[in-house]
Amino acid sequence: MLILQLALILLFSKIAGEISVKLGQPAVLGKLLIGIVLGPSVLGLIESTDTLKEISDIGVILLMFIAGLETDMNEFKRSGKASTFVGVGGIVLPLSIGYVSGITLGLDTFQALFLGLLLSATSVSISVQVLKEMGNLKSKEGATILGAAVIDDILVVIFLAFLMSFAGGDVNLSMVLIKKFLFFAITIFAGWKLVPIMLNKFVPLKVSESIISAALIITFSFSYFAEYTGVAAIIGAYIAGVSISVTTYKHEVFEKIETIGYSIFVPVFFTSIGVAAELGGITENLNLILVLSVIAIATKLIGSGIGAKLAGFNWSSSIGIGSAMVSRGEVALIIAAIGLDNKLIDHDFFTALVVVVLITTIVTPLLMKKFLRTT
Got the DSSP string for 129-163? Predict the structure, then answer.
């Protein structure tokens, strides 16, 4: 069954991507939509299974690793101030409006704060692909977006830890903060000192593709360590990519990892987002979904956009940067699951939030295509 599912995903994702491009839209949009068509909500040809989810996870890890490899470190350093403004702006407005909306909907204080935090999350896995297609990944805007996403993730996870500790969740706040600090301290040191040593040790080995294997070992290790310390795996993968990007092996690793990723794992990731969508109960919560979707899209677009403007970008670039921060992706889904497990939201509200996350993910490529200039 899995083999047939993979064949269908690869076939239809490529066709859908091609159609999307011919219609003047990013290829990733077609891949997202075809997942909904193939999934249980429409044709039912593909089911969301644990195995497919694992393959999808590898896809997003490789996608962010490739983004790290393509990062211009000089531009990344120069965009530090802008990334901070965009990241913070993309949290303040969604958190505030999300909290007020939660109170208006009858949620208690902790539930409303949780809703605000969920709406503050950002996942740039979709944005990275659109940036690549538009030739913008290495631009000043691209570096700002990637940096802002890292800052956003750190702040949201820390705020979530505070909220869970005060809401009575089984969370040791001090331990959470220590883990976050250790993750960045260890991975930055390892990326600076240990990664080059490991790559040099693997080069002389008399086995095929030793340097690519070393790169994958580093990527998966950083990603696992990120998850273990409560940071999103995609951040670990991105740091691994950046670490290798400053070595002499960058181009060899990039060419072969891109082939591995885009031949199977990345298409599965994009398509499985649509496959996992449960649209059965959408009509019962339609008004809630519409309201939260508008809030989710507008607050990120405006909040991050204002942050970019304050950092010195013109309005055109600012809106483009804001549009790239709209997608909530897997980061928001993880937070929603935490809320469901800790009874901060009920199952109906959880289902509505999943649809909202899906809508932000589908809208992001459209917004980026409209507002972000192509280099």
Answer: HHHHHHT-TTSHHHHHHHHHHHHHHHHHHHHHHHH
